Amino acid sequence: MKLRELAHSRTGDKGNTLNVSVICHDAGDYERLRAVLTPERVKAHLREVVRGEVVRHELPGIAAFNFVLGDALGGGVTRSLALDAHGKSLSSALLDLDVGE
Q1: Which pTM was predicted?
Q2: String of DSSP letters for 15-76
Q3: What percent of the chain is modeled with pLDDT above 70?
């Protein structure tokens, strides 16, 4: 099962730091995703892009997570010629993570 079946995502950027939210479709899946979506797993899944630290902020009241991905935008929006300078496609890449059955 892919993460996109249990959650949706949104991204934002600030310099070379990417912010990725993961919001459960059903609050009942929050604990399951809490166990699976570790900072280490997210960094490994996005290893081609994320060079820095990954920090997870838990938001159980709204069944969501906020990941802050350091050194993830090729130097930053204003300094990078990368096609996806704002990192918007990385939410889709993260939602492709396999979260089991």
Answers
A1: 0.80
A2: TTEEEEEEEESSGGGHHHHHHH--HHHHHHHTTTT--S-EEEEEEGGGTEEEEEESS-STT-
A3: 83
Helix, strand or coil for residue 94? helix
Per the domain annotation, does 53 fall within a domain? yes
Position 41, amino acid = R
60 touches 49 (CB < 8 A): no
CATH assignment of the domain containing 30: 3.30.70
Residues of the domain holding 61: 3-74+86-95
Candidates 99, 89, 85; CA nearest to 9 is 89
Segments of the chain with pLDDT less than 50: 80, 83-86
Count of domains forming the chain = 1
Structure-block tokens of residue 57: 């902020």
45 domain residue, yes or no: yes
